[in-house]
Sequence to fold (336 residues):
Amino acid sequence: MSQTSPYTIMKIWMEMSLQFEDIKTPLSEKFRSSNKRIYCNGSVRVSPSDCILPVKYKQFADRIKNFEVREDDVWIVTYPKCGTTWTQEMVWLLINNMDFNRATQENLFTRSPFIEYGFILEDDDERRRNVMDTITLAENSPSPRCIKCHLPKDLLPDQLWTKKPKIVYVTRGVKDVLVSYYNHHRLLNGYTGSLDDFAEAFMSESVVYWDPFWKNTLDFWNMRNEENVLVNSYEEMKKDLPGIIRKTAKFLGKEFSEEQFLALAEHLDFSKMKDNPMVNFEEQKKKLNEMFCNDATFMRRGEVGTGKKELSPELAARVDKWSKERIQGTGYPFVG
Ligand code: PPS
Fold:
């Protein structure tokens, strides 16, 4: 039986208009009340994709869907906490001729715009005052652009599937993502619930900010053989960073000396990135810690296997079961 190409399916989605359904379940309400930010005005389920997003997304959806893509863009697409920042810094340096000078003077936030950041912050969030309109920032950025996006495949700009710029997708072991995302909610949203409650929300496929982890991940895994898509994993980056840098450079059509590759690997080492104010969010962290009275941090552990260590054995087993059911028959190898 002939298989329908992912691009044919995408063409059908492109022609469908977006639908929004308000989400109000006991679990989503419990989750909402445990966060001081982001979910305050409620969430919507977006169709197609089933992605759960803040209500504010409705105001941005068309601008993102109709965003003018350039053929020489590189899009860093990920589920949150999979190694986005790490990959952005790697790709930005690869497509900017290893310009370490600029990388150490200009924040990653403006070098590599997070296109949908605008709808994450509510209008009354004081952080908004310091944040420019990131869609405009991306529109005005010179080529080659390195754009960050966490949206699922179905909600990405339509032109990604016609102009076909390079897309680097990075994935990570789901238990490590869960624990890192829990920490992220504490840091950025003042989440006061327990890790167990967060895990319930994460697996309920209805309350955590983005669409179900496995849908986001498997959609890109199924596109891994497309010429313009590269799927890396956090675990591979930890195991052989110079190897992943070389592989990514090849995918991007960039050539460098072995010395340059090794210099980039050193720059991207967790110990270096953790102390690099252009990528480590330390400045925001101080204000957020004060606002939410906690000690959460962005560059937290930078390790593989933290989920297994931090989740109770019962919870880890439930996450494994939940994952197994979803990846059965897909050939997806990075379980973690
Ligand atoms: S976000 O908010 O979605 O953009 O977060 P993201 O950048 O995807 O993920 C943050 C986690 O990545 C870790 N990190 C790194 N690990 C290893 N090496 C380097 N250089 C590196 N840079 C960031 C960061 O510590 C978060 O993981 P946890 O497990 O929470 O430590």
